[in-house]
Amino acid sequence: MADKQSNSFSTTQLAKKLNRDAKDVFSLLSDRGWIKREGKVWRLTAKGEFEGGRYTQHEKFGEYIVWPEEIKQHRLFDSESFIFLTASQLGKSYKIPAKRMNLILSELGWIERFHHGWKLTLLGQAVGGQQVEHESTGMPYAQWPEQVRHNLQFKATLEKLSKHNEHLSKEADFFIANGGLCECLDGHQVESAALAEIDNWLYIAGISHAYRREIPTELDHGTEKIKESISCDFYLPNG
Asked: Which helix (H) or strand (E) holds 107?
C-alpha cells in the first residue's frame, strides 16, 4: 500500500512496481540484511534504515515498513538479483555436475552437510544464497543468485579447475612442459594435470591426503627383515 503522506510504498507495493512476486522481494531484502523477521512482523535493520526504509502507521494495518520512490532504481533490484540457481544450474555452464558443484561450494565454506542435504552457512548467506527445501522430499539445499558467478573467490576456484581440465583435454599438455609443476587447489604441487585432477577431487571431497608420501615398510627376506620405504602418489591416512 502507498503511504499517502509521502511518495513512499510498502514492500508489497514495491514488489508490484518492480513486477516481482512480493515473497521474492521480502526474501531478497531479508537476505541482503535490509529487514529481519521478528515474530510475525518485519522490522528494519540499520542497513534498511540507511537505504531509506522507515515505518508508517495505518489505522487498520498498524505499523509497517515503507520505502522511498527512488528505491526502485537501486542496483539491488537488478534482474539478476531475482534469478536463483540450483547447484545443477550453476554448474551447467562450467560442465560440472551438481554433486561436484556442491562439494566446491562446501570447500568455499558456503554450505555444509546437513542430514542428506546441504545447509547454508553464514558465508553462504553473505554472498546471497537462499536456504530452500525440496517440495516432495523436504531435503534441504541452497539456491544462488545469478551474480554469484562474479564472486572473486568462486571465479578463482572455477578458473583453476578449468585450467586443469584444459590440460587434461590435450594429450600434449598431459605432463607439464619443461618439468614445471601444476598447483592444486590445496596448494600441492604435482607433475601433471591428471594428478591435479585427483588431488582436487580429494580436497573438494574433504578427504585427508598427502602427496608423494614415503611409507616405511618391513619385508621378510629369508630369515632377515629388510626395512625400506615405498613412495605413493597419494596417501590416505584414513583409508
From this structure: helix 98-107
Residue 226 confidence (pLDDT):
65
Distance CA 75, CA 56 (A): 25
How does pLDDT run across 47-76, given as a tens digit for each residue? 999 999 999 988 887 899 999 999 988 888
Phi, psi of 238 (to 5 degrees): -95, 15
Instruction: Dump strand ranges (E) for the chain.
Output: 2-3, 8-10, 35-38, 41-44, 54-58, 62-68, 84-85, 111-114, 117-120, 130-133, 140-145, 182-183, 189-190, 210-221, 224-235
How far is Cα 145 from Cα 124, in angstroms, rounded to an integer? 11
pTM over 0.90: no
Backbone φ and ψ for 48, nearest 5 degrees, come out as: -65, -40
Report residue 106 as a C-alpha cell.
562446501
HEC assignment per residue over 69-91:
HHHHHCHHHCHHHHCEECHHHHH
In angstroms, how far apart are the furthest CA atoms of the chain? 100
C-alpha cell of residue 150: 562474479
Domain extent listing, the chain: 2-77, 83-150, 154-235
pLDDT in tens, 166-224: 665 554 444 445 556 777 878 888 887 788 888 888 888 778 888 888 777 766 666 66
Cβ neighbours, 10 Å, residue 183: 15
Residue 177, class by beta-carbon neighbours within 10 Å (0-12 exposed, 13-18 middle, 19+ buried)?
exposed
